[in-house]
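During the first year of the project, the team set up a workflow for recording each protein of interest as an amino acid sequence followed immediately by a discrete structure-token representation. This format lets reviewers and collaborators read both layers of information side by side without switching files. As required by the reporting guidelines, we include two representative entries from the current panel. The first entry is reproduced here exactly as it appears in our internal archive.
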Amino acid sequence: MGDTENVIIIGSGPAGLTAAIYTARANLRPLVFEGLQPGGQLTITTEVENFPGFVHGIQGPELMDVMRQQAERFGSRHQYEFVDKVDLSKRPFEVTVGGTTHKSHALIIATGASARWLGVPGEEQFMGRGLSTCATCDGFFFRDKEIFVVGGGDSAMEEAHFLTRFAKKVTLVHRRDSFRASKIMQDRVFENPKIEILWNKAIAAYLSKDGQTVSGARLVDTVTHEETEVPVDGIFIAVGHTPNTGFLEGQVALDDHGYVLLNGPTKTNVDGVFACGDVADTRYRQAITAAGNGCQAAMDVEKWLEEHHVGP
């Protein structure tokens, strides 16, 4: 166990890396644990066209790489390890990584949320190649195309409605005969002439003509078990997200779905522990909002350390 860190940042998506840039520039020498998927969800995103400053777009992994390099330029330190647990009952806080315990005066949680997938073979292969979990991110690429949206909750309704701005036709695929979404969201879908609904259907397999991109899906009827193959240009999975908060072991207040509850932009219920990005964001889930929230967390940490007379 070495010296006590000023701040440890857990997570390496846009929120965590922006927090690293700002805390590093404040001479706090942050220690960043990047986890098993350095760069977060953007490392599995191909083209990012809506992040300001990149007129021709940028590949998701490249964006995360340059953000990391920018943080390292100012003195951040990065370890590509997964945090096993934290102990927030002690001062300084303790963060355990692979059997080693690190101490820190402050903590920023930026572990994000993982989109739920269907578990159908080929999802990793076709991710970003006709298969997506973010309509706001990828809808533009499906202008005048025919697409599926899979799900039955509010997020699926919202994604389907949004995608009608681009797509020629949107088909909602739902494994039951009724939606669980709120009535107002259902009404919006039912009233949209560009949206069709396939009830009692589930995706059994993704189809591809070239082995590279999605060209259709094999659907199974959940009542009759009959299978049909349907051509489609893209498939959006909208069955929710799971926040990556299991390692917290209930030490920080979470909502019923596991997202970190905040008091203001970044403060948790534990003094000195801050959270930012998708781990606490149930609404926007965009790279730019996560980055902005990471900036807020860093500035809040800097002020907190100053008020408690710790740090450089």
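The second entry, processed by the same pipeline in the following quarter, appears below.
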Amino acid sequence: MMKYSEYKAAADYLRPYVPKETKCAITLGSGLGALADKIDAKHVIPYGDIPNFPVSTAIGHKGNLIIGTLDGSPVIAMQGRFHYYEGYEMDKVTFHVRVFKLLGIDTLFVSNAAGGLDRSFKVGDLMIIRDHINLLPNPLIGSNIEEFGLRFPDMTRPYDLELRERAKKIAQEQGVKLQEGVYIGWTGPSYETPAECLFLEKIGGNAIGMSTVPEVIVARHAGLKVFGMSVITNESFNSTEGYENDGDDVIKQANAASERMSKLFSALIKSLYA
């Protein structure tokens, strides 16, 4: 288990680089690191330079912490995240979230590439995450670190309602179509079988992915507000003859959607500083 002192060491290293007015952090998933290119970067810090930080090994994850401004708004952005399937324990998968808390961040934006379980979804759709189902180990198992939060945090509304409604209004103004649904966090790294997809659809999932949920649980434990968005990069419900899920195509589709997501995230974050 990570100790409070290890989170503090990482935060102390980063603090001189982070403007005091910064209150938003973004975790960018597979293929979505392109949004970081929109940031006017003041500092680009490889994860390996930060004390106790894990290192990304997943495809499409560059492994840099970007500190700068997005359309004038100060932000910290994770250009790539950590996954349970990489072999990391959950306290490593979620390490950055608690470091953000110590740096004074109060709102976490999470994004991911996800497979569509909802048969009305199309590849390239953006889905606001309304709720989630966790099929990964809970990152709060083990000794509770009281400095971050209560032993039994409430998860009634893991994704902030006000931010979701604000995002819908901004998307309407931008002419961007949004889906909304339930994201299922799945261990991976293998893609789901058709039978598993049918099961996941029946238990209430609209999209499936291999990340995000542990970060959200730790963020809510620490009292951070959360806004989450999935890019639908493949049709997980598709079991037709000859159809296969392909990791390279997932990255391609995520990159194609990143421009629309960047504009929406930028406007939503700017509204928090207004």
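For the second entry, the following points were noted during internal review. Residues 247-273 form the longest helix (27 residues). Helices lie at 4-14, 90-93, 95-102, 161-174, 194-202, 213-221, 247-273. Both points are flagged for discussion at the upcoming steering committee meeting.
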